[in-house]
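Researcher: I need the complex structure. Ligand is oxa(dethia)-CoA. Inputs:
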Amino acid sequence: MKVKITATGSYSPEKILTNAELEKIVDTTDEWITDRTGIKERRIAAENQCASDLAHQAALSALNSACMKPDDLDMIIVATVTGDMQLPSTACVLQSKLGAFNAVAFDVNAACSGFIFGLSTACSYIKTGAYKKVMVIGVECLSKFTDWEDRTTCVLFGDGAGAVILEPSDDESSCILSTDIHSDGRFAELLYVPGGGSMMPASPETLKDRAHYVKMKGNEVFKIAVKTLENLVIDTLKKNNVDPSELSLLIPHQANMRIIQATATRLNLTPDRVFVNIEKYGNTSAASVAIALDEAVKTGRIKKGDYVLLEAFGAGFTWAAALIKW
Ligand code: UT7
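Model: Output:
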């Protein structure tokens, strides 16, 4: 049995935070952010919006594209590291907001690779024959975990959500050809939120130390991300006997324009075969590839029969790829 993406959707909060506005918050410049990352602006959730609210909008958008009702879903997988609460899962909160009571709902935590980990999980469940209409959502409310006094991280992140619906298919000429997921926990402390969990429970001390915010050693993450992603995309194509010249569109995780360019160069891809929207949204972690995929579909960048490669790298470390014949 094969698995097919039958619909996509996404949602980005209305509020736009530009580089010029960030110049007034921390010691940075539009020039530095643009040159080093490719980001010009990012979306920020409203004060009363949490991850499940963004996920809800993206889910409705995907259901609308599929002409499906929430009741039709039998599984909901939410990939996030900025969920509504420590418990229950954001997927359960979303299930309630959607009224999708025929679905089992759970979260996946694989940071920026989370959406592709979710796709991989969904494919496995569908291939058992037990689940037929599975929604996978990548969503982040990173602005609520961002240290707005730390210029090395606060310029990078944004909020948003992307969703897909997956269904079984017999059509070998239009399906997900492979998903690859990987992790190496030895690098956990290069990108993490140390406070607020069982290792360092919330306390006045952790608040004072700003331990509840994302910490990243960006330059070290950068070097490993470039190398890992280059190997990942080459291996994924090789495994599927697809030559890079046959690839119609690379949809990379939108963390840094220089990382995206390095991967594109390794595959010898011209810019028209690489999907980039980092300038509008910044790094939205698990939502990034999902939003990009929806935009690529809705703007006609993907046609039936195209080879489309998704890839991501993130905290953990985790990294993942999915090759799709659209
Ligand atoms: O999504 C999950 C995985 N995450 C990633 O893939 C992110 C990977 N990392 C990156 O994208 C890049 O490393 C960053 C964009 C985070 C940083 O770029 P970089 O070229 O690696 O810069 P750097 O960290 O080596 O810093 C260079 C300089 C430093 O100043 P000194 O020490 O050379 O004087 C920083 O203090 O840039 C300074 N700097 C800034 N200057 C202006 C750092 N942040 C800023 C800032 N504005 N916002």
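Model: Summary of the prediction. Residues 28, 32, 36-37, 112, 151-152, 155-156, 218-219, 221-222, 225, 255-256, 259, 283, 313-314 surround oxa(dethia)-CoA (CB under 6 Å).
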